[in-house]
Amino acid sequence: MQHGRYIRIHARALSGLVFLAGIAGTAAALAPAIGEDMTPSADAAAIAAGRLPEGYRDWRLVSVAQEEGKLNDLRAILGNDTALAAFRARQNGAQQERQPFPDGTVIARIAWDHEALAESAAAFGKAQSYVAVHPKNGVQFMIKDARKYAATGGWGFAQFDDGKPADPSKLTGCFACHQAVKGRDFVFTRYAP
Q: What does the pLDDT read at residue 132?
């Protein structure tokens, strides 16, 4: 009788330990995800410190664009994880487009000069395919922090030329230009599914 009771007590204790181990394992598995969600400001902190955010070229593609006029470039719009989640949520209709982007959103714009692809012109008898060639107009960032950048709709603007912070005078017109899309939280780009 004592032996059976001993086994039941230890079986309960063992199942309790297994339960606690399961909770610990789940917490350990979730820890990186929680850490990632809580550190989007690391990108903004790097920019504020005059450094390009680590790995920004590996951020997800939000959209591509062609800018005409005096800028005349091809662009890739990239976003950190916070930005991408917000863009995806916003694609569900005009109502969501008016929702503000969350703090921690960082959007990057990379631009290149472009030229006609000679092989394409030879194949089709005319220039019709254009490819990016030389980086152009620096790397630009929009950083969402509603408190820090309250005077500019919650957005900070930064540009890096050849990996170094651009002269702040280059950024004075950014917010004025983005006023045209105030109803979309000052963001021109739309997610390209």
A: 87
Question: Quick one: 180 and 99 in the same domain?
Answer: yes
Task: Let me know whether 18 and 99 are in one domain.
Answer: no
191 belongs to a structural domain: no
The two tokens of residue 115 are 């030229």
One-letter amino acid for residue 90 of the chain: R
What value, to the nearest 5°, has the Cα angle with vertex 168 and ends 167 and 171? 115
Q: CB of 71 within 8 A of CB of 111? A: yes
Strand partners, 66: 74
CA-nearest of 97, 135, 94 to 114 is 135
pTM above 0.85, yes or no: no
What confidence tens digit (pLDDT) does each residue in 97-122 have?
Answer: 678 999 999 999 999 988 888 898 88
Q: In one letter, which amino acid is 172?
A: T
Residue 156 structure tokens = 């900070």
